[in-house]
Amino acid sequence: MKAVILAAGEGMRLRPLTVSEPKVMIPVANRPILEYVVDSLVKNDVHDVVMVVGYRKERIMSHFEDGKKFGARIEYVVQDKQLGNGHALLSAKDRLSDEFMVLPGDNVIDSRAVGDLLRSGACPSALVVESENPSKYGVVTLEKGEIKSVHEKPAEMISNIILTGMYCLTDRIFQFIEQCISEGEYGLSNAVQLSLGAQAVTPVFSDGLWIDAVYPWDLLELNSAALENLAVRTSGKIESQVALAGPIGIGEETVIRAGTTIYGPVLIGDGCDIGPNVTIFPSTSIGNSVTIEPYTMVKNSVLMSNCSIGAHSYLSHCVLGYGVKSQSHLMAPGAEAYVNISDEFFKVPHIGSILGEDTSFGTGVAIEPGTVVGAGCKVSSGSRITRNLPNRSLVT
Predict the structure, then answer these.
(1) Which of 174, 192, 251, 328 could potentially form a cystine with 270 if both were Cys, beta carbons 3.0 to 4.6 Å apart?
(2) What mean pLDDT do residues 247-259 have?
(3) Is it the case that residue 224 has pLDDT exceeding 80?
(4) Where in the chain is the domain with CATH 2.160.10.10?
(5) φ, ψ of residue 195 in degrees (nearest 5)
(6) Cis peptide before 16, with omega less than 30 degrees from 0?
(7) Quick one: pLDDT at residue 158?
(8) 270 SS3 class
């Protein structure tokens, strides 16, 4: 069976983290989200993959190439305009026949979730889960073991069972996608709803892992879940008087200096320089070539590659894009906060700061919880950031 992975979107609500990266290539536990999807397919002996790409497609194609190093055979289809996931699937029509799987490329999925969908033996079928926040998704109602109806992002409570975007479908779906597009509907769930009158779609429940990253703070949940299955591999140099507790991965040529304490699960990439006297708490991922200077504390955060954090800093529940640089005493605590994303406000139980790539901070900068700082910003010493900053802002 072939699998189609839909990986063309930008991830608008994840800005500024998607300025130069498509959403599917954002690292979670130091691996692109899309790698988890490919890996889960390969573990279920699904090796033939059609990947629909679009936004920043070169980043995806240069990473995965023909798929050989991931145990897959990958071919690419380009969706020139990102109009919706139904339109994206239609782009791959010429590469598909009979039955095939469809998966979103921007969700962390484990092999059990894929396996449960395959082992159900039903096609067409859809992997569904119960959700505490169903209004963000396609909501389904069930009757006699079949999907009765699909409601895309309903404003009122209809059901708490949602579509995950993982399907087993047949090539009959394309006629319904084409009909929906002719009526201005580009979502795959719209086509699935339209198809219900002609064919039964079986809901499949799974205890496997499926987590979607819709907003920046979702990356913290994805990162934490991915680290739960951390394969411990310790390389590099660990100086004396370093305390390590729990599962911890440390990359090659990384130096953990004296007096540093790390509570796993924590993953640290290659070529990092940590400490001395740094404390890193659980559910933290640190990319490659990251420097963390003395007396800094990092909790439940994602630091992408090439970041540099000055001494006496504090980061909690933060996501730092590639190449973020700070001098000493950067304060970015986490707390309950309202976060402004695309002119909407969301109450998040615990969130620090979201810092876009290549942004730099002087000494003694404080950032309010829930603040989103754009890419390429320059923030002068002693600044207090209390609201979102657009890309390339200058704060003096």
Answers:
(1) 251
(2) 96
(3) yes
(4) 227-395
(5) -75, -15
(6) yes
(7) 83
(8) coil
Q: What topology is assigned to 2-214 in CATH?
A: Spore Coat Polysaccharide Biosynthesis Protein SpsA; Chain A (3.90.550)
For the CA atoms of 24, 18, 164, 74, the dihedral, rounded to the nearest 10 degrees, stands at: -20
**pLDDT of 280 strictly over 80:** yes
Per-residue pLDDT, 136: 75
Instruction: Let me know: does 77 contact 22? Beta carbons within 8 Å.
Output: no
Do 358 and 323 form a contact (C-beta atoms < 8 A)? Answer: yes
Q: Please tell me the distance from the alpha carbon of residue 210 to that of residue 137, in angstroms, as a whole number.
A: 13
Contacts of 314 (CB under 8 A, 6+ apart): 296, 297, 330, 331, 332, 333
The whole-chain average pLDDT of the chain stands at 93
What residue ranges of the chain are covered by domains with CATH 3.90.550.10?
Answer: 2-214
* Residue range 8-49, pLDDT digits in tens: 988 888 999 999 989 999 999 999 999 999 999 999 999 999
pLDDT of residue 81: 86
Provide the pLDDT confidence category of residue 80 given band limits of 50, 70 and 90: confident
Amino acid at position 231, single letter: A
- Is-contact 28 222, C-beta < 8 A? yes
Reply yes or no on domain 227-395 having CATH 2.160.10.10. Answer: yes
Instruction: Give the angle subtended at the CA of 141 by the CAs of 136 and 145, to the nearest 5°.
Output: 135
Dist CA 354 CA 373 (whole Å): 6
DSSP notation for 310-336 = -TT-EEES-EE-TT-EE-S--EE--EE
Angle, to 10 degrees, between the axis of helix 33-42 and the axis of helix 57-64? 40
Q: Is the pTM above the cut of 0.85? A: yes
Helices (H), 350-389: none
